């Protein structure tokens, strides 16, 4: 929105750091492997099989990484719907993280699908299959990718508008024309940016309902869509905390105060999630299976322990005052929340017959490469455009004057 | 019927709704086999394990050989299991304690009455033929997402993993080959003992029940496929428990119906998403209005507007100066 442009600043720092080269190495490695996959086929790079047709490319890159990319969604909900404008400085970096997270999901899907050249089927109404959960998820994620790019656009435009030297006069001219127009309609895009994740994050849970005979009953429930959307919310808040802490370490910025306040919301969200989870297990009579002590039960208990620990830490005011504890709690919730999604998509999934799956090295490094690419893009964008929250105090004033 | 649905979808798309997953009231009806539905009936006690059906299936459907691991010629077809080269296979079960007790079993697509693969496919590449109930695949539409493989309780759809341009492979009752030419699937045509026969599902079911009644003690009471996941058009009789023959124990409820029910509850008529959007937009606009009342906000907004105006003016002047 207009009027907030002075809340953000370009992070003035060297782009070609050692971290940049490390990430670049993994990105290049990943893309080489992707090239190999497109020449030799999926079987040549992955351990996927007819029993486990979906591996980490779906379980991590799509199902889990889009939850990690829910920071923009979770923050927009707090700022625009719950009307907590004080968190507004956090939204841009959250949105950029979301944009790259969803881009990663989109790219992974194109690596994962076998007949990618037929992907245009989604734009042909006669082929639409509204019974399919996948249809909803695919179209919704595509639309949300566009929404995220539009949401990040103001930061890009502002940079060109405020450019003192006229290096790109044409772009500056159009930026000045587009910016006020975009600003007027942006609120409707922002609202779309809350509606779409509400839809596809729940549907990501619905996706496994159809595989009832294969998914362990500890995880298979009609409540999966509800569990997934609440899970996306607390993972989203945890990501904002993680991202703020990581950038304060990496970029030597002060840890944002708003983030610590934000952590107060999390125990309410996880509390609701835990309640739904346990009541559902109780009603379906699966509580004893969940604590039976076998492999699946241990996986369930690990998931629970991580989320309960993260929640417990954030329940106490004295812990919330310590940035370190807030960060640790966020890590517990990120891993625990992601663990739940992995349990649903991979660990709790067991097809009839003798099938097993563990990702192959190339498969793993394709995911690593795409994640590295995502972080690389984030680091580049915050150093080129006003995305990070403005640092308050003297140092911040200097930084603000610099551009 | 189909036209109206398509029309609705178009209108919904034009209306700005980005997500459509509602409608098709028919999907929520009870599962019931069509009277015209066709399928196969395999009687394990009649099968002699000659595998004529396996080779004929490969021949008519133009499937590649699946050589044994140590086969240097790479020509001898010895499939170990269903895969992208094998739509149909015969396997042998032997009782560990009583070697005399053995039974053959034939695997291929079960042609479910409410197929999960069809329900899962996002682009209608998996389809169920109206009337006959044959579940078939169209590679020209398929995007290769493999959700059909995840959804199928019998693990039937197979993927061409080693191929650069892979497709899904599964039995379609020879819909485009033998059934089209000779009105019978290849496996049923060549079976020397009539262990597998082709016909309408209701006739096949009646025949299975007749055999059970005429030969007390010979067969298990269970007719596999009669009720599994809402019923399948391929049904089985056997002299041994079906779990011995490698069949999964499945509920009579269809998970596809469960999934569609959840999906339709949320997305029926696309009302919920639109209502959610409307509600959120209302709240967000109201919040923005109150935020705008804060003077500070006005100032900065004004500043930027003035700044842009000045810049544009300067640009214009520069342009005019050039002329």
H/E order of the elements of chain A? EHHHHHHHHHHHHHHHEH
Structural class of chain B: alpha+beta
The CATH architecture of chain A can be named as: Up-down Bundle
Mean pLDDT across the residues of chain B is 85
Helix content of chain B: 25-40%
Which residue ranges of chain B are poorly predicted, with pLDDT under 50 across at least 5 consecutive positions? 1-28
Number-wise, the strands of chain A total 2
Describe this structure in a few short sentences:
The complex is a heterodimer of chains A (403) and B (323). With 403 residues, chain A is mostly helical.
Report on this structure.
The complex is a heterodimer of chains A (403) and B (323). Chain A has 403 residues and is an all-alpha fold. Chain A has one domain (5-401): Up-down Bundle (Formate dehydrogenase/DMSO reductase fold), CATH 1.20.1630. Chain A contains 16 helices and two strands. Chain B is built from ten helices and nine strands. Chain B is of the alpha+beta class and 323 residues long. Chain B has a domain at 34-253: Alpha-Beta Plaits (2-Layer Sandwich), CATH 3.30.70. In chain B, 37% of the residues lie in helices and 11% in strands. Chain B has a three-stranded mixed beta sheet. Chain B has a two-stranded antiparallel sheet with strand order 2-3. Chain B has a two-stranded antiparallel ribbon with strand order 4-5. At the A-B interface, helix 1, helix 2, helix 6 and helix 7 of A face helix 1, helix 3, helix 4, strand 6 and helix 8 of B.
